[in-house]
Amino acid sequence: MSLLFFINQNSMAFYWVKTNRFIKRLFSQFVWDIPNTDNIVYLTFDDGPTPEITEWTLSQLKNYNAKATFFCIGDNVVKHPEIFNKVIADGHAVGNHTFNHLNGWKTDSGLYIDNVKKCAESMKGLTAAESFLFRPPYGKIKRSQSKEMIKLGYRIVMWDILSADFDQHISREKCLENVLSNIKSGNIIIFHDSIKAFRNLEYVLPETLKFLREKGFKCEVIS
Fold first, then answer.
1. Of the candidates 45, 137, 120, 130, which has an alpha carbon nearest to the alpha carbon of residue 77?
2. pLDDT at 27
3. CA 69/CA 90 separation, integer angstroms
4. What residues act catalytically?
């Protein structure tokens, strides 16, 4: 059994901006949110590190004293270790996003796990401690793959709010609405520090951070 929760009728892809309770119960072994009463939310960024874009993202987070979790592609870590190190130096958390941004549905499970391990090795050489946070690219992972990941000690972190910043068919205003109309304490919010997403991210991230500060939310890392 596999997992899918993308949907956008305009672009012929599909995604749920707000993950519903049924999906959370059905895949309860995954982390969808982190409930708390302290007004803490969890910003996450996928697909980096990316030159200029990840660095811009870090500067925005620093402006608002916000911490986040970056799910990194191993190949990008190898290509841009100085940016990866900057993420860690700034006090953010990092997670595994496979080495080659693999679609779990389309990948042999053995090859998929090997690719995850390759990503882990690329990060381990640059960090003091190994990260056991994992997010499957596209949110697509076979049950056999997820079982093996959990056996290896990984926490599979999904998301509760999808910004859809990667979707170039939606406006920046719609992207911001996707985030702000759903925020509550405990949410895991997904953005992408990638070239494809930057048109929306450049507008949405500062507005989101401003909103969170005004409403008394704190942004912390996932551990």
1. 120
2. 81
3. 11
4. 46, 192
CB 28 within 8 A of CB 184: no
Question: Cβ distance 166 to 197 under 8 Å?
Answer: yes
Domain 6-219 sits in CATH at: 3.20.20.370
Rounded to an integer, what distance in angstroms lies between the CA atom of residue 174 and that of residue 163? 9
Residue 120 near residue 131, CB atoms below 8 Å: yes
The dihedrals phi and psi of 127, each to the nearest 5 degrees, come to -120, 155
Which one is predicted more confidently, 53 or 26?
53
The residue extents of the domains of the chain are 6-219
Nearby residues of 169 by Cβ (< 8 Å), 6 or more positions away: 8, 10, 11
β-pair partners for 120 = none
Cβ atoms within 10 A of the Cβ of 190, count? 23
pLDDT at 128: 62
